[in-house]
Structures are given as C-alpha cells and as structure tokens.
Amino acid sequence: MTDTGVTLNSGSGGKTIDTEACGLSGFEIQRIKMVMGARDTDGGDVSATNPMPVYTPSSQSIATGQGTATTSSAQIVAARTGGWGTGRINLAIENNSSNPMWIGGSGVTPTNGKEVPGNSAIMWPTQAAIYAVTNTGTATFDYVEFY
After folding, report:
1. Structural domain range at position 21
2. Helix (H) / strand (E) containing 65
C-alpha cells in the first residue's frame, strides 16, 4: 500500500489524515493505529514488538442454583462483583414452569421487571443481585452463572 493523505476541510486549511491506497484504482482507506497507555500518555503503537495487552483468565468458574419465585419479590441470585475469577460475566436463568416470572432489582414487580415467559430462558450480563416475582402462583427456575 502506498501512503498518501486526505485533507479534511481543504478550503479552511484543514488537517491531513493518513490514508493508504488499498490496491483498488482510485480508492483509499484511512489508516488507523491503536496507541496504548493512559489518557494523554503515549504507550507506543501496537506492533509485533509492543503487542496489545489481553487478559486471559487462567480458568472460569461456574455456579448453579435452583429456586421458586412467588408473588413476593425475593432475591434469587446474590450479587457477584469484581474482575475475572470473582465477578460475574454472565447469568442464565431458565424458567421451568408454564407460569411467567419477572426478574430485576430489589422490589421487582410484573410491571417494572423483565419477563421470563414460562418454559424459556434469559441470558443477562450483570453482576447485580437478581430478584424475581410472579403475578400469580409460583415459577420454578434454575440458573447458571459464569464468573
């Protein structure tokens, strides 16, 4: 690719951004390089000798549970905050009843909660405590959380 440039707002002395000819006659693409480091601190361009840091957890944990939601809002899954290995990444809740249930924060109701219809499941990326309620009867559920 050949380095060229495009001047933005050329009538007003605009800045030139780096572009490269991409091999298609008459077309150029903007070249973008990722820079690492804290704001206003140049940690250097990402390259083979200065790779982008990526956190790879050594292991992921899974916890499971079961319960019954009733017409009284109650906590069904405790909060799990923190980073990899301690904080929840995702939570799956499966409603095993034909009766719908609603999930949300403390004080959840069928009016303000997220419905989990009967015999269905929901995946929720949250670290918060989850509460559940039904509008009538009960709903049995199970859950799996990844942290």
Report:
1. 1-38
2. strand 62-69
Q: For residue range 86-98, list pLDDT tens digits in order.
A: 889 899 999 999 9
What is d(CA 100, CA 81) in angstroms, rounded to the nearest whole number? 28
Based on the domain organization, do 80 and 133 belong to the same domain? yes
Can you name the residues that pair with 19 across neighbouring β-strands? 4, 30
Low-confidence spans in the chain with pLDDT less than 50: 1
Q: Is residue 44 part of a domain?
A: no
Number of domains in the chain: 2
Nearest to 69 by CA among 123, 126, 113, 128: 113
pTM value? 0.62
Asked if residue 50 is part of any domain, the answer here is no
What residues are paired with 5 via a beta bridge?
18
Q: Which residues are CB-neighbours of 109 under 8 A, at least 6 positions away?
A: 73, 102, 133
CA atoms of 2 and 8, how far apart (whole Å) = 19
